[in-house]
């Protein structure tokens, strides 16, 4: 790529002209500002003192030396301490011609022999259906996995299902008390929705019991512990850990309902996993690690029988690992799962995609793994992301104030259909093709809306803004791709194929040059986004490319161009833009239509 050539040429010129030893990779190149002529800019101020030249003199001498050394540099100019290089049209033309039909442009192939990067995401509890918060988690986890793979990593996608614990016991107990044998079949509800219904039911009755106890004078915190429903749920959890057949059978039955519901939602979202772990299979290994920690003296047992890790010397506090009744907590199973996952994959990195409310939890996990003697503890990385909020505040599953994932996808499909009809974009398509298109646009809108936001930031969910064929949206990019593919198909009917060679060099217009430069940035954008675990960088790149192409398309004849050679060049450019949009959107988990 031209960037490396320029860096090397600048370093060589600094050595030859001024005896300065500068590593090529430390030469900072940046895109030239739009108000100046040029493509790449080097700031010469860092070298002025040692060269004993004014910025203007240094820039002029460096520019002349680099132009002589690098054939791709057509010209240069110096504005104060900024040396601007103009890259030749021939370089941009050769770049597009070389990549015009490369379906993997911008992507690196993963090496299956490399130690894998394990990415955990989703991690649902089996007491409720997937909601908007889960959608951000799943889409981010999937996209980060695809982003790392696009940068050459051997990625393994995993899911840890939190299928045991007090949360599912609450749903189980409420179903026994108030369910009258209701099933997904008898109710017509998805299994995860049905179980979630009883989680809400538990909370409603639990609050009533707390109110009764506090009305009799009991302290509220004590009432929360002593409420009969909570006491019975805790007893149910203890019976589960002791292997009680009746409790285990009910647990298996209700979890089976939930898994069927989850799988349906995952299919709708277009996400999946290489391996699924279950907390019920990992918490015992976690308990073994707790015993190991006690034997090593890095954990301690309190008088009530509970087990803790003292992290005060690490600037934290004491962390509970086993309750006084011997039942485990989230940290217990996370210790077991981390060890199991390390043993399964020999991972180069263990990435956990979990919301920022769990920052403390993962600091503790990493510290305890280190104290237990695992030298791979520093490979644990928490990809902490911000919450999805509604205009009226946070969602609460126990109160039923959530945006259900299935309902949201269905509503967005209806909106996509309405938008297509309003814009006349559903002509000449069969009902089945239209159904697929509406689903593709709905998911494109949803995924892009969520993934274009920096993962570290909280986001406000507003679906009305997401489905629009104009603006920074998924459908705008999807429509741009469909438009380009139509151009390429029509060009093929004229006998203009992007793989053909140009008959002569072409002179680029400013708008063509802007599109080509944007295309040229794709590989470095993917690399930078992967280093920062940020699909948002890819999303915003795709929008910039689509926007740049549309500006070019509006002002430039393509199929109507009389000059056959120029027409071929522009079809090559269109082909590469379409491939680049398809590849960037694929990283985001978004399909792009061939026609609309």
Question: Can I get a quick summary?
Answer:
The protein contains 21 helices and 14 strands.
Structure description:
- By secondary structure, this protein is α/β, with parallel strands linked by helices.
- The protein folds into 3 domains: 2-87, Gyrase A, domain 2 (2-Layer Sandwich), CATH 3.30.1360.70; 121-399, Rossmann fold; 406-587, Isoleucyl-tRNA Synthetase, Domain 1.
- 55% of the residues lie in helices and 11% in strands.
- It has 21 helices and 14 strands.
- The chain has a 5-stranded parallel β-sheet, with helices on both faces. A 4-stranded antiparallel β-sheet has the order 1-2-4-3.
- Helix 1 (2-18) crosses helix 3 (55-69), helix 8 packs across helix 11 (245-269) and helix 19 (522-531) runs antiparallel to helix 20 (535-555).
- The chain is globular.
């Amino acid at each position: 790529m031209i960037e490396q050539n320029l860096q090397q040429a600048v370093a060589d010129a600094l050595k030859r002209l001024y005896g300065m030893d500068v590593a090529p990779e430390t030469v900072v190149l940046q895109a030239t500002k739009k108000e100046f002529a040029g493509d790449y800019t080097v700031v010469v101020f860092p070298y002025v003192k040692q060269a004993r030249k004014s910025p203007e003199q240094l820039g002029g001498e460096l520019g002349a030396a680099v132009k002589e050394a690098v054939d791709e540099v057509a010209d240069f100019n110096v504005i104060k301490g900024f040396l601007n290089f103009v890259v030749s049209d021939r370089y941009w033309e050769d770049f597009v011609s070389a990549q015009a039909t490369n379906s993997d442009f911008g992507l690196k192939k993963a090496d299956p022999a490399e130690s894998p990067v394990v990415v955990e995401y989703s991690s649902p509890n089996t007491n409720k259906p997937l909601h908007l918060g889960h959608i951000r988690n799943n889409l981010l986890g999937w996209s980060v996995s695809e982003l790392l793979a696009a940068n050459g990593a051997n990625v393994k996608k995993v899911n840890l299902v939190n299928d045991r614990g007090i949360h599912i016991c609450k749903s189980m107990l409420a179903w026994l008390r108030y369910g009258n044998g209701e099933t997904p079949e008898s109710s017509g509800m998805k299994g995860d929705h049905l179980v979630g219904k009883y989680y809400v039911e538990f909370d409603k009755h639990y609050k009533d019991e707390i109110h009764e106890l506090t009305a009799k004078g009991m302290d509220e915190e004590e009432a929360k512990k002593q409420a009969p429903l909570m006491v019975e749920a805790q007893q149910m959890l203890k019976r589960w850990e002791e292997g009680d057949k009746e409790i285990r059978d009910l647990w298996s039955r209700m979890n089976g309902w939930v898994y069927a519901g989850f799988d349906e939602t995952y299919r709708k979202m277009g996400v999946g996993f290489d391996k699924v772990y279950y907390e019920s299979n990992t918490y015992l290994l976690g308990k073994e690690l707790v015993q190991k920690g006690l034997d090593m003296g890095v954990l301690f047992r309190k008088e009530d029988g509970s087990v803790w890790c003292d992290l005060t010397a690490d600037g934290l506090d004491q962390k509970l690992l086993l309750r006084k009744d011997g039942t485990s907590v989230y940290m217990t199973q996370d210790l077991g799962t981390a060890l199991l996952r390390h043993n399964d994959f020999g991972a180069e990195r263990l990435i956990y995609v979990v919301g920022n409310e769990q920052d403390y939890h993962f600091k503790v996990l990493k510290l305890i793994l280190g104290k237990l003697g695992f030298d791979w503890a520093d490979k644990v990385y928490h990809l902490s992301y911000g919450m999805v909020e509604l205009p009226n505040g946070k969602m609460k599953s126990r109160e039923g104030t959530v945006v259900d994932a299935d309902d949201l996808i269905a509503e967005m499909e209806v909106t996509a259909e309405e938008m297509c009809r309003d814009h006349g974009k559903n002509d000449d398509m069969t009902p089945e093709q239209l159904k697929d298109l509406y689903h593709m646009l709905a998911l494109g809108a949803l995924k892009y809306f969520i993934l274009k936001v920096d993962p570290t930031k909280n986001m406000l969910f507003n679906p009305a803004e997401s489905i629009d064929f104009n603006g920074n949206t998924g459908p705008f990019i999807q429509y741009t791709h469909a438009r380009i593919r139509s151009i390429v198909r029509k060009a093929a009917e004229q006998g203009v194929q992007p793989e053909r060679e140009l008959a002569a060099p072409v002179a680029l217009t400013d708008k063509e040059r802007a599109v080509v430069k944007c295309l040229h940035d794709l590989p470095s954008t993917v690399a930078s986004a992967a280093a920062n675990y940020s699909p948002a960088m890819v999303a915003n790149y795709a929008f910039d490319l689509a926007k740049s192409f549309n500006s070019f398309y509006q002002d430039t004849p393509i199929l109507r161009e009389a000059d056959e050679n120029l027409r071929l060049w522009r079809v090559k450019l269109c082909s590469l833009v379409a491939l680049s949009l398809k590849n960037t959107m694929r990283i985001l988990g978004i399909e792009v239509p061939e026609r609309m």
